[in-house]
Structures are given as C-alpha cells and as structure tokens.
Amino acid sequence: MRYDLVIFDNDGVLVDSEPLSNRLLAGYLTELGHPTTYEDSLRDYMGAAMHRVHDLVGERSGQRLPEDFDEVFHARVFAAFRAELEPVPGAADVLKALVAAGVPYCVASSGSHERIRVGHRKTGLDAWFPDELVFSAEDVGRGKPAPDLFLHAAERMGVAPGRCVVIEDSRLGVQAALAAGMDVHGFTAMTPEDRLAGARGFFSRMEELPAILGL
C-alpha cells in the first residue's frame, strides 16, 4: 500500500536514544528509592511520555516523585545526548527516499519538543525536520498509548488517519497507532516482535523500510 503520510516515532527509530535515556531513567529512579533496572525501564517506559513515569511510580509506591524530577532527568539526558547520541543507522537514507518519492512525512514523539530538537541537532536530522514536521505529546496532553498524538499529527498534515503509516519500536506506540486507525510497522532493532503485537509488519534494519513502503 502506498501511504499519504509516514509518521515516525523519534526515540529508537530516528535517533538511537533508548539505551541512553532508559539507563539514566533506571539509575535516577533507583537513586530516589524506587529500584528499577534497565530492563524494567524498557518494559514500562519505552515510548511513553513523562507522565507515565509519575503515574506508575505513584501507583506502585504510593509516593510522588520530586517536583524537579523532570527537570533533573532531562538535564542528565540532554547532557548524554550532546556527548554520545547517534542517529539510527540508515534513518537519513529513508528520509532521502521519501523526499525523492514525494511522500510526506513527520515525527510524532512522546518526548518534549526540546528533547526532539536536542537529539536532532546532535545527529544532523534537524535538516530533515523543520518545525512544521515535528509533533510532541506536549501538543496534546496525553502521550502514547492514547491515539491523540498521532491523530493530531495527521490532522495538522492534512491526511486522513487511514492513509497514514506509523513507524514504531515500542509497545505503547503500536497501541497508539492502532487506536488512531493507522497502519504501523514495527522496528525490531531493540524490541522483539512479540512486544509489538498488532503491527502490520516488522523490520530490523532501516535499509528495509523503503521497499516496505513501496518506494
């Protein structure tokens, strides 16, 4: 099927940020008395907006995270991004193929606009994503697995949900795309297929994506 809009998740799909951010999140939660392994963080928070961290910690412990939790966490993440972040191999080539084929695309991320921009500037992907192609859970208030973010991106791009395909690597993101009535292809570089149930198809290398999209 040829789609009218390709919607990319950001973390783990365009930028290789999931190992960095989940390692830091697990470490910070553990510091605060909420023991969390890297694997726990991937399972519970990968693909989610920050409110999910607060919600789950509150449900499980009956305690609230510090008021400055988001600020401290993001400062650590952005420092790591500026020092270490790399693009997902092949991501820029996929974007080149979409431009060459005249297929619109955008990014819709649970991360904040600042997080997206810091990562894109470090990896050089900012050249592909002007402001009008960047959508964040900040824009809608509810992050994945709610469909709001993907529906907002489709509306702003002027494309019906049924004509969109989402490229995701998280369980929550796949759920959000399906709830929005969109096709979704699961990127399995970090996430096993069984964690991305409901995806229309799966691929493990970005080099495979242009053919999947019929480019």
Any chance you could write out the topology, listing elements then pairs?
Elements: E1 5-8, H1 18-31, H2 38-45, H3 50-61, H4 69-84, H5 91-101, E2 105-109, H6 113-123, E3 134-136, H7 148-157, E4 164-168, H8 171-179, E5 183-187, E6 201-203, H9 209-212
Parallel strand pairs: 1-2, 1-4, 2-3, 4-5, 5-6
Helix pairs in contact: 1-2, 1-4, 4-6
Description:
This protein folds into 2 domains: 5-16 and 86-212, Rossmann fold; 18-84, DNA polymerase, domain 1 (Orthogonal Bundle), CATH 1.10.150.240. It is 44% helix and 12% strand. It is built from 9 helices and 6 strands, in the order E-H-H-H-H-H-E-H-E-H-E-H-E-E-H. The protein is globular and about 50 Å long. The mean pLDDT is 95.
Residue-averaged pLDDT: 95
Put simply, the count of helices is: 9
Gross morphology:
globular
* CATH homology group of the largest domain: HAD superfamily/HAD-like
Give unreliable regions as ranges. Answer: none
Structural class assignment: alpha/beta
Topology pattern, helix = H, strand = E: EHHHHHEHEHEHEEH
- Could you tell me the strand content as a percent range? 5-15%
| Helix share bin | 40-55%
What is the C-alpha radius of gyration, as a whole number of Å?
A: 16 Å
CATH topology of the largest domain: Rossmann fold
Question: Any idea of the CATH class of the largest domain?
Answer: Alpha Beta
Report how far apart the termini are.
Answer: 10 Å
Tell me the number of strands: 6
Whole-number count of domains: 2
CATH architecture of the largest domain: 3-Layer(aba) Sandwich
Strand order of the largest sheet: 3-2-1-4-5-6
What summary fits the major beta sheet?
6 strands, parallel
